[in-house]
Specification:
Length: 566
C-alpha cells in the first residue's frame, strides 16, 4: 500500500492541511515550528490506531479528522473487501475521525461511510524514527523491544537452532559463584535480605549480555559518536518492524511493504554521510540492496521489500536533485499550508532552467524569501551589500541564489512563487533589452548594461576614484599600469555603448588623469575581464553603503520586506 493524499483538520497547528504524497520518497521542508513533525506524528497516530490526546485538538469542540487515500497493489485489492473508489479499484479513500479526547479513532470508507476495522489499518506497516530516540538505550543484544530487538532475535534464533551447545563451564562458574558469595556474606545488608550471586541458566539471556557490537578500532558502539549510532538505529528499527510483521504473517506471504517516517535523520551526520544514509535507505526501500535482501530471505523468508519514505528535514544536503520530491510547509494568512512539488506545473523551458540550477536552489526551499542574481560577481557581493545596509540574510531567512544567467532568473522566481516563497530578481539592462523583459515590482534592472558598468558608473558619479582604483589594485597589483590593447578596447566600447570615443592606441588606466569617458571605459573593461566570485567580494568589501547602486539597494530592501512579512 502507498499513501497518495492526506487532508488534516483540527490537529494541533494543522487546521486544514492537504497535500499529495509521492509513491517513493518525500522531503518535507519548511521553517522551524511550522508543523512538519506534527504532520508525521499525526500520520503515525492514524496508522498505529493510537488515540489522540487532549493536546492534539486545536479546538476541543471539533473533531480531529484525517482523510487519506491509499494506492493498492494488485495483490492488495480486496483487502478492504469491496470498499474501493468507485472509479478505481486500486484506490481507497478513508476518513479517520476522533470526536473528543475521550473517544477513540473511528475509520470509515469515505464514499459509503462503512466502518473499517483497526486491524486492517494496522496492515500498513509504519516505521517511525525521530532524533529524540536514544540509541544507547536500544542498540543492545539484551533488549527485546526497540531497535535492539533484532539483535536479540539473532542470538535467540541461534540458540534455538543449537540447543545442545554449551556456552560455559558450569564447574568453573560454581567456583566463581562461591568465591563471590563468601565475600558478600560478610556484608550485613546482603545477609539481611539473603542477596546472593546467581549464574544465568538461560542461554539467550546469557549470550545477549556477553555479545556486544564494536567498531573497527575495537571500541564499543555505545561509546562511538551519535552519527554511527543513529545510522545503525534507523536500519535496526526497520528490521524490528519486519520481525513484528513476520509474527502474524501467513506462510505464503513473502512480500513486505512499509511506510517509513523519518524526522530529521541528518542530525549528528556530516553532509556526505547524510546523503549516503538517505541513498542507503532508498536502495533498501526499492529492494536494490542485495545483501539486505539476502538477510531478509535467510532470517524471515521475505523475498521482496518495498517502502514509501517520508522525511522531515532541515538539511539541503539530503534533498535529491528532483524538485518533485519536495513538500514545503509555510504560513499563509497565519495558517500552515503546504505545497507538493509533484503537483507543480512548469513550462518545458522553465523546468529545463530549474534542473540546470537546482543544486544552487535547494537551500532556498527553507527560506522566507529569496533574491536571485545572474552571475558570480553579484552572488559574492550581495550578501556584503546587505550587511552594509543593515540586512542580515541569514537572520531574516533570505536565500541568495545564483541563476547562472538572466534566462534562469524568471523560471526560478516562478518555481519559488509556486512554493509560496516571495522572491526578487536582479537582471542586467542588456538582458532586459535582449529578452524584452517586463517591468514589475519584484524585478530590478541595472541602469547601465551590467553589474560591472553599474558599479563603475556609480563610483565615478560619487567622485570615488580612489575606491575604484583600490578595487583594481586589490585584484591585480599591476591593474593600473597594465595596457589594454586598442582592438579589445574597441570591442568593449561597442558592447557598452561608448559612442564617439576615439581609441587610437593601447592605453593603461593610470594614463588617464581626469574623469573622462576613456577612463570609465578602461575601468569597465578591467571589471568585465576580472568578474567572478573573488572579484565580486573585493568590490563589496571596498565600497560603502552610499556607494551601492540604487537598483541593488532597492532589491535588497524589497526582499527584506518580503521576508519580514512572512
Amino acid at each position: 500500500m502507498q499513501l497518495t493524499y492526506v487532508e488534516i483538520q483540527n490537529y494541533r497547528n494543522l487546521g486544514n492541511l492537504e497535500l499529495s504524497i509521492n509513491s517513493d520518497i518525500n522531503f518535507i521542508v519548511g521553517e522551524n515550528n511550522i508543523g512538519k513533525s506534527n504532520f508525521q506524528k499525526c500520520l503515525s497516530n492514524i496508522f498505529l490506531c493510537k488515540q489522540f490526546s487532549k493536546e492534539d485538538f486545536f479546538d476541543e469542540t471539533l473533531p480531529i479528522k484525517v482523510k487519506f487515500r491509499l494506492f493498492l497493489t494488485y495483490e492488495e485489492i480486496g483487502l478492504f473487501d469491496d470498499l474501493t473508489d468507485p472509479d478505481d479499484e486500486s484506490s481507497i479513500e478513508i476518513i479517520a475521525e476522533q470526536s473528543t479526547p475521550d473517544d477513540y479513532i473511528q475509520y470509515v470508507h469515505s464514499q459509503t461511510g462503512e466502518a473499517i476495522k483497526n486491524s486492517l489499518i494496522k496492515r500498513i506497516n509504519v516505521i517511525t524514527y525521530d532524533s529524540l530516540r536514544n540509541p544507547k538505550n536500544e542498540i543492545d543484544f539484551s533488549k527485546t523491544k526497540g531497535a535492539g530487538a533484532f539483535l536479540n532475535y539473532l542470538v535467540s534464533n541461534y540458540v534455538c537452532k543449537n540447543p545442545e551447545v554449551g556456552f560455559y563451564k558450569r564447574t568453573e562458574l560454581k567456583k566463581v559463584k562461591k568465591s563471590v558469595s563468601d565475600a558478600l556474606s560478610g556484608i550485613s545488608a546482603f545477609d539481611r535480605f539473603n542477596i546472593q550471586p546467581s549464574v544465568e541458566e538461560n542461554n539467550v539471556e546469557l549470550l545477549s549480555k556477553i555479545v556486544s557490537l564494536k567498531d573497527g578500532n575495537g571500541v564499543n558502539v555505545q561509546s562511538d559518536g551519535y552519527g554511527v549510532q543513529y545510522n545503525l538505529l534507523i536500519i535496526l528499527a526497520l528490521l524490528e518492524k519486519i520481525m513484528d510483521f513476520c509474527k502474524s504473517k501467513s506462510d505464503d506471504e513473502t512480500s513486505f511493504s512499509s511506510l517509513i517516517i523519518l524526522d530529521e535523520p541528518e542530525i549528528h551526520l556530516h553532509p556526505y554521510l547524510q546523503r549516503t544514509l538517505i541513498a542507503d535507505i532508498q536502495r533498501l526501500s526499492k529492494g536494490q540492496d542485495e545483501k539486505f535482501n539476502a538477510l531478509l530471505r535467510e532470517q524471515f523468508g521475505i523475498t521482496e521489500i518495498k517502502a514509501q519514505i517520508i522525511i522531515t528535514t532541515h538539511s539541503p544536503n539530503i534533498l535529491f536533485d528532483d524538485y518533485h520530491k519536495i513538500i514545503r510547509m509555510y504560513k499563509h494568512d497565519g495558517k500552515t499550508t503546504a505545497v507538493s512539488c509533484s503537483n507543480l506545473r512548469l513550462s518545458e523551458s522553465e523546468e529545463k532552467q530549474l534542473y540546470a540550477q537546482f543544486m544552487y536552489i535547494k537551500e532556498a526551499v527553507f527560506s522566507k524569501a529569496a533574491i536571485i542574481v545572474e552571475g558570480e560577481s553579484e552572488y559574492s557581493s550581495f550578501g556584503v551589500f546587505a550587511e552594509k545596509m543593515g540586512v542580515d540574510f541569514d537572520r531574516e531567512g533570505i536565500a541568495l541564489i545564483k541563476a547562472g544567467g538572466a534566462e534562469s532568473v524568471k523560471p526560478i522566481m516562478a518555481m519559488l512563487d509556486k512554493l509560496g516563497i516571495s522572491s526578487v530578481g536582479v537582471i542586467d539592462k542588456d538582458k532586459k533589452i535582449e529578452k524584452n523583459l517586463p517591468t514589475q515590482e519584484n524585478l530590478f534592472y541595472t541602469t547601465t548594461m551590467c553589474f560591472d558598468s553599474e558599479i563603475v558608473k556609480y563610483l565615478l558619479k560619487g567622485r570615488k576614484r580612489a575606491i575604484l582604483e583600490k578595487i583594481i589594485t586589490d585584484t591585480n597589483l599591476n591593474g593600473l599600469t597594465k595596457k589594454f590593447q586598442k582592438k579589445n578596447l574597441q570591442k568593449k566600447a561597442d558592447k557598452f555603448k561608448f559612442k564617439g570615443l576615439v581609441i587610437d592606441r593601447d592605453i593603461a588606466i593610470n594614463e588617464c588623469t581626469e574623469y573622462t569617458k576613456m577612463y570609465e571605459l578602461l575601468c569597465v573593461t578591467f571589471f568585465a575581464n576580472e568578474k567572478g566570485i573573488l572579484f565580486g567580494r573585493t568590490i563589496a568589501e571596498n565600497i560603502d553603503k552610499t556607494d551601492i547602486p540604487p537598483c541593488y539597494k532597492r532589491a535588497v530592501k524589497k526582499v527584506s520586506e518580503y521576508a519580514r512579512a512572512n
